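So, can you check what follows?
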Amino acid sequence: MTGPACKRRIRRKTDEMVFEKPQGLIDVTQRKPATRPALRLAGFAVAAGLAAGPAASETLESALAKAYGGNPQLNSSRANVRATDEGVAIAKSGYRPTVSVEADIGAQYFEGKFGTSGSGAASAAGAGAVAGAVATGGAGVTRFTTLPSGAGVTVNQTLFNGFQTDNNTRRAESNVYSQRESLRSTEMTVLYSGVTSYMNVLSNTATLELNRNNVEVLEEQLRQTRDRFNVGEVTRTDVAQAEARLAGARSQVSVAESNLRTSIGTYRQNIGVEPRQLAPGRPLDRYVPKNLDSAIAIGLQEHPQILSALHAVDAAEAQVKVLEGILYPTVSLQGAVRQAFDQQLPGYNAVTASIVGRVSIPLYQGGQEYAQIRQQKEVVGQTRIQADLVRDQVRAQVVDFWGRLEAAKAQVIAAQAQVQANEVALNGVREEARVGQRTTLDVLNAQQELLNARVNLITAQRDRVIYSYGVVQAIGRLTVRYTAVPVAAYSAKVHYDQVKDLWYGVRSPDGR
């Protein structure tokens, strides 16, 4: 079959990836079960051109919006940032007083004598204090039962602790900023994975259709070769070559079906839904810098991994100050009020109040604090080295993706020229074979070369889109802010502002 109904045309545009055939859609569910196993994907169809309406197709941007809103990895990172926000409230608690309320009640029995030695007046007063409230037995033995009880409030306020609270707050804030940048890095990773899985489904679907079309062409080629063999125009060798090539083509269909199944599973993992009617993907060229030097400069300045590492350095330095604060004096103030009943004798009722200032000066605690300070200073040095390492990694990643994008652009142009040349060559070989100037093997080889060229073009078009997003990711801008993803951006600052100054409450701002 060489008519228009079975031809697949693949053309290149500079701003989009197009897998085109006259019918507009490639439905991978409608296959011939007698010739090959069907790829059972309920209701799954992938757009192969521009014929599908925008309302019926899943675009790359809408797929990324689903990944942005529901990807478990991204939601987990957001929860981690919210948990880190609470570290600021925890650190600020050092500025605030601690208040405790205590109460006690018990029972106490007394049996004994009030002696007459010593001050007679005091003994008489003690005896008189219990005269009407207790029973006095023989020989001057006094017995009574009391219920001692009381309640009080104690307030403690730290006035100075070597600036530990200040530095703990600084460290907590640096950790928050670092986690925000890590969240942005996770967002870029999720979006890039979504782009890759989206384009893999498109390219693997187109590759599968090319291989299935190749099987149909080879089946027709085998039929014609057998007819020519029956009339003596070709030999049994020609028939065997056609059969072998058809068997190999069917094997390639099985491989292509397996690759498509794998890409669909990855798509479901990254996007969260099954792929249905995917529209062509477009490169993100508008956010790709004009040259490599500009890309490197932007990456070194804006990439979230670098910024996260720098905030980690700030947090480590603040921790050194916290540990040094342990060597400073501590000044605190304590106030207490207590109401007591029946503490010693029946009818006892007293209110006590106190306010006490305390100063604690550490002199020597075995050298532990000094070792911790030295240890943390080494951690600071390590985090600085790690920041330099991240810079080198970002630079290498920018150069890597930039080179891949440039190569993909060149490969698209070369692959398109290769397809056009192979189409002309195949038509010529077929015409020459009809007049006996070419063998069946020549025709089969030309057909295979055209198939390979078309697959190469599909791969180059896929890479063209993926690596444009890769460059934007490498410079640190693959976020919903810079892409046309139709979704409201998540703001980590909202939760931070809600909890950073809370004095009490066990419910999180979302109601949990």
